[in-house]
Amino acid sequence: MPILELTAVSKSFGALVVAEDIGFSVEPGEALGIIGPNGAGKSTLFNLINGNYPVASGTICFDGRDVTHQPPMQRCLSGMGRTFQIPQPFERLTVFENLLVAAAFGAQEKESQVTDLCADILVETGLIAKANRPASALTLLERKRMELARALATQPKLLLLDEIAGGLTEGECRQLVATIKRVHQRGVAVIWIEHVLHALTAVVERILVLNFGRVIGIGDPETIMASSVVREIYLGMEV
Amino acid sequence: MSFIDTLLQGILLGGLYALFAAGLSLVFGIMRLVNLAHGDLIVLAAFLILLIVSTLGLDPFLAAVVAAPLMFGLGWLLQYYLLNRTLGKDILPPLLVTFGLSIVIQNGLLESFTADSRRISANAMETASVDFGGISAGVMPLVTFVSSVLVIVALNQLIYRTSLGRAFRATSDDVVTATLMGIRPNSIFAIATGTAMMIVTVAALYLGMRANFDPTAGPARLIYAFEAVIIGGLGSLWGTLAGGIILGVAQTVGAAINPEWQILAGHIAFLLVLLFRPRGLFPRAMD
Q1: B250 in a domain, yes or no?
Q2: Which of A73, A76, A83, A95 to mutate to test the interface with B (most CBs of B within 10 A)?
Q3: How far away is chain A from the Cα of B169, in angstroms, using its nearest Cα?
Q4: For A20, A99, B69, B222, which has the most beta carbons within 10 A of its beta carbon?
Q5: B161 — contact with chain A (CB < 8 Å)?
Q6: Which residues of A touch B177 (CB under 8 A)?
Q7: Each residue of B131-145: pLDDT tens digit?
Q8: Does residue B180 sit at the A interface (CB-CB below 8 Å)?
Q9: Sorted alphabetically, which Gene3D superfamilies does this protein's record hold (chain A) (predicted)?
């Protein structure tokens, strides 16, 4: 049974169609990459999946249940974690508190039972030295790491990563990819929107291509990157 | 000596104003809700304590202990079923609704308790005083001040040391992201207003024991509360205490010069702060 299944999901803002008849599924523990030009509707798709936007039509099933009309909070509680393209830390909380809130409420645990988990995640994401700093004091890389760390603290079964490698240096990107790989190897399903293709292909098993709110292709990375339709639309050149 | 005496009375009076203000500050800090009925809710709580004292014959302090959970429940219901519906991008609906609530509470109290001026009797404590080498201070103002410090210490513990407090701050920071962490903002807001109503009960206890009150006494209390919060700077509870003290000292100094100037002097101090430090003396929130 797939962990996530979208069937004929559509959404438009006025005349602008941002998602049209989208259907795909992700198996438990799978990693799926999503690529597409700017404005293709990638982040919108995440907003539909996690419930920030209501769908106009279609259904979304998560972990065997229909979550199409559930609020984001409910989807978080049933195991959907998300990071934002522009990190959204709780600025006036410390880094550790950001994780504590996520773990205590997102995983419905007592704070005393999740402190070790939060500390482990901070070690894993390389933020332990900043644990007691206010989140507002973090650099871009640290914010992106904290975004990931906080999503992990909710103990998700499915992790939605939105351009988490964008804007990072080569070395920073490698570290982040290594972290995501470890998380994925522990059995967490990942859907990852990314422009940095080599980071993406290092982790994901399949890639989905989106353009004008439609699925153009889905398949293993080699096939997708070799397909002429994808090269034309995504890379903007004819082959 | 009389100047030091005036100063001490002012500082102690500031404790009462800080109690008026702490609940208002908490609610505004967490959900950016300006509760115009805050003063009337204090008066409502004072009548509730009076009712418990007169029907059950309890000591006022015990009566407040009984009233506090009732007020928590009232605050919770009020927020969950009414005020949460008014929260959004537009700041006008909560102002209008709480203004209406203020009128409803005042008239409800007039209907049930008449316009008579009331007082909660604290017996011997009302007149007891302590002597500090020539300067004497009333036990009641001292107890009020100590209570306000305890309330602020407890609130800070709640906000900075507990899971609920972290949820308060996270929701205050970013409601949308908070829901993605599994937080239910509506119930967090309801608990926050419930907590504010427990502080309101403490404020009402001292209001009722120290002075006369009647159903229309709320709005003036609201003004003092607002002034204390703004003088202190939004987002800092210790700042609110400092704001209350400045207001209290200004009033007693004004009254010492001319009894008619008490209220005026407080408002002038407030206006001066607005003029020279519009963000308050100890601002914390940047919004």
Answers
A1: no
A2: A73
A3: 7
A4: A99
A5: no
A6: 84, 88, 90
A7: 887 788 899 999 999
A8: yes
A9: P-loop containing nucleotide triphosphate hydrolases
Average pLDDT of span B37-44: 98
CATH topology of domain A1-79+157-167+188-239: Rossmann fold (3.40.50)
* Nearest CA distance, A143 vs chain B (angstrom): 14
> Is B181 in contact with A97 (Cβ distance < 8 A)?
no
Q: Is the pLDDT of residue B287 over 70?
A: no
- Which pTM value belongs to this model? 0.88
**B240 domain residue, yes or no:** no
CB contact under 8 A, B180 and A76: yes
Residue A38's pLDDT band (cuts 50, 70, 90): confident
- Residue B242, in any domain of the structure: no
Domain count, chain B: 1
Residue-level pLDDT at B283: 79
Instruction: Please report, for chain A, the start and end positions of each structural domain, with discontinuous segments joined by +.
Output: 1-79+157-167+188-239, 87-155
- Beta-carbon contacts of B38 under 8 Å, excluding residues fewer than 6 positions away, are B20, B23, B24, B27, B98, B200, B218, B221, B222, B225
Q: Is B234 on the interface with A (CB under 8 A)?
A: no
Q: DSSP string covering B249-264, please? A: HHHHHHHHH-GGGHHH
Q: CA angle at residue A74 from A69 to A77, to 5 degrees?
A: 150
**Is residue B28 situated within a structural domain?**
yes
Interface A:B, Cβ pairs < 8 A: 64
Closest-CA distance, A77 to chain B, in angstroms, reads 6
Tens digits of residue pLDDT in B183-240: 999 999 999 999 999 999 999 999 999 999 999 999 999 999 999 999 998 878 999 9
| Cα separations in angstroms, A6 against A22, A31, A200, A226 | 7, 16, 22, 26
> Facing residues of A7 across strands?
A59
Domain carrying residue B194? 2-117+137-222
